[in-house]
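for the recovery benchmark. tokens below, seq after
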């Protein structure tokens, strides 16, 4: 049974183009060099499972034709992955109900703090707000008849989660993939993996490290995401090994 993974956003926390930058990538007329903040959607059996709610969520959903969200998976609590949460209320209205949200305990705690209005009954906040059903992840779980496999790894000193559904996996914001987690990524058709830039970074794979990790995992196709303005799409992709590519906003990958 196939799974489709759509890249809503492929950019780093600043987005590309960056504010106040006139480098060649920020001025590029290649649409693949215009990168909103990192997010994705798994689609299967008529369901849409969103991964993270970045700052441009509304714009991304309009651009990629996302008209429903049946669940949200969170990788971690950093601002570029959560601050679009309020846009979920539109899907609540369209679908006439609360939407389940899955994350580790720490991520849910930060989300509850950052979006307290969504979780408390406040008569001084009469406006519509997101309706969420929070679930703490503790290992693989079933979602709409499919197994969701959380993939734990490190983002600097922060433990975060990637996700595998079927033969597609989404693993942004990573600089260390433990061997036990790598084993969860065997026999993939599609892998989406962090690759920030060429220079080393304390919390992200650089391009060289990402290529090395992609070779270890050995998916049939690997797409690199969370890309900064140091990497020009066409030039960088031409240097990549066979079966490795740069992701871009709007990319659609299907894993059979």
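predicted aa per position
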């Amino acid at each position: 049974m196939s799974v489709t993974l759509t890249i809503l956003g492929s950019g780093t926390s600043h987005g590309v183009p960056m504010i106040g930058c006139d480098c060649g990538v920020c001025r590029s007329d290649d649409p693949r060099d215009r990168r909103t903040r990192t997010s994705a959607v798994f689609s299967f059996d008529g369901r849409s499972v969103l991964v993270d709610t970045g700052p441009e969520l509304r714009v991304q959903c309009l651009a990629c034709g996302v008209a429903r969200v049946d669940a949200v998976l969170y990788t971690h609590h950093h601002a570029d992955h959560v601050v679009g949460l309020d846009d979920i209320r539109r899907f609540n209205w369209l679908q006439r109900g609360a939407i389940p949200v899955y994350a580790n305990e720490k991520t849910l705690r930060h989300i509850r703090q950052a979006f307290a209005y969504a979780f408390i009954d406040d008569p001084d906040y009469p406006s519509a707000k997101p309706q969420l059903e929070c679930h703490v992840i503790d290992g693989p779980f079933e979602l709409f008849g499919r197994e969701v496999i959380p993939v734990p790894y490190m983002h600097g000193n922060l433990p975060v989660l990637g996700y595998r559904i079927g033969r597609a996996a989404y693993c942004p914001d990573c600089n260390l993939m433990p061997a036990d987690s790598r084993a969860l990524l065997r026999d993939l058709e599609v892998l989406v993996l962090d690759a920030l830039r060429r220079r080393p970074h304390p919390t992200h794979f650089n391009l060289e490290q990402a290529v090395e990790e992609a070779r270890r995992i050995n998916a049939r196709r690997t797409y690199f995401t969370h890309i900064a303005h140091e990497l020009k799409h066409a030039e960088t992709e031409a240097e990549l090994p066979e079966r490795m590519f740069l992701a871009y906003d709007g990319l659609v990958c299907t894993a059979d």
